[in-house]
Design brief:
- It is a single chain.
- This protein is of the alpha+beta class.
- It folds into 2 domains: 181 residues, no CATH class; 59 residues.
- It has 10 helices and 7 strands.
- The chain has a 7-stranded antiparallel β-sheet with strand order 6-5-4-1-3-2-7, sandwiched between helices.
- The longest helix has 24 residues.
Length: 289
């Protein structure tokens, strides 16, 4: 490389101080019990550790680090995973992520547009205040006390870095029942998170069992949830409308993921398409009077 050529993207500039921020890491928090989360998490086709995280909360810790081996940064990988989990589940999914430059969260819930916020490594807010209020509303948090605490995370605070901001976010969620195991905290290296999750008494490994077993397990969970009337074999107008909506949303989402080479978004789109096609196929094969 000649002296006039710029350094590769991501390489430190000559004379620049080395980055001292945390290595990339991630957590997925689901507002559901582990037995409900496991079947949906299998469809991500990523090996993860699953453990309880308080009343009606679960935590998923990735065993791999795809953001280190591919072209996607950790925030984009987590966005895809959270979206893929949420579109097929009746509970919201909160993705926490961090790297040397930034930290943030993303909340995915059903078919609604995900909402998130970002802080720079030194804690400088880099998101929209409205995102915090939408976040609180979707999780059913206290519109006064909790929203005030969340608003404080969007204000300048020289004493709070990005890691402290995420911990402040989790502190608010403790009032909603979230209790992470000791050591399972934002900013910790991915290897440390796996070690902590693995030693939890209720820890289980979630991995891809094959399409037949994964779909059967997911249907068992969904059928017992409030989404039951929307399932294809109910023969209701809601079920048919849902199948059409899933296909309409899944096709462009899959195309967008392929164009961006985003495995998480491709997974989300493919799941939507699969659900929609299966729903319509079942409806056509079992006509009602």
């Amino acid at each position: 490389m000649s002296s006039t050529e710029p350094p590769p993207r991501g390489a430190p500039r000559p004379g620049a101080a080395p980055r001292t921020g945390p290595a990339p890491g991630a957590l997925l928090l689901c507002r559901a019990e582990p037995e409900s989360v496991a079947p949906a998490a299998q469809l991500l086709r990523e090996r993860m550790l699953l453990t309880g995280a308080g009343a009606e909360w679960s935590a998923l810790v990735p065993e791999g680090k795809p953001w280190r081996t591919g072209d996607e940064p950790v925030d984009r990988v987590l966005t895809g995973w959270a979206t893929a989990l949420a579109v097929g589940a009746p509970w919201p999914v909160l993705a926490l992520w961090w790297d040397a430059d930034r930290s943030g969260y993303l909340l995915a819930s059903g078919f609604r547009r995900p909402v998130g916020y970002i802080w720079l490594a030194n804690g400088t807010p880099a998101g929209e205040d409205e995102a915090m209020r939408t976040f609180a509303a979707r999780l059913g948090l206290d519109p006064v006390l909790d929203v005030q605490s969340l608003d404080a995370l969007t204000k300048p605070d020289p004493a709070a870095d990005a890691r402290a901001r995420l911990r402040g976010l989790l502190a608010v969620l403790t009032r909603a029942g979230l209790t992470l195991p000791t050591g399972l905290a934002p900013g910790e290296p991915a290897d440390r998170l796996r070690e902590v999750a693995r030693v939890q008494p209720d820890a289980t490994t979630v991995e891809w069992p094959g399409w037949r077993d994964a779909v059967r397990a997911e249907l068992d969970v969904v059928e017992s949830s409030r989404l039951g009337p929307w399932l294809p074999w109910t023969g209701t107008p809601k079920a048919r409308a849902l199948a059409v909506a899933q296909m309409a949303a899944g096709l462009p989402l899959t195309a967008w993921g392929l164009r961006r080479r985003s495995g998480g978004w491709v997974t989300a789109g493919a799941l939507l398409l699969a659900h929609g096609v299966l729903g319509l196929a079942y409806d056509l094969a079992h006509p009602r009077d």
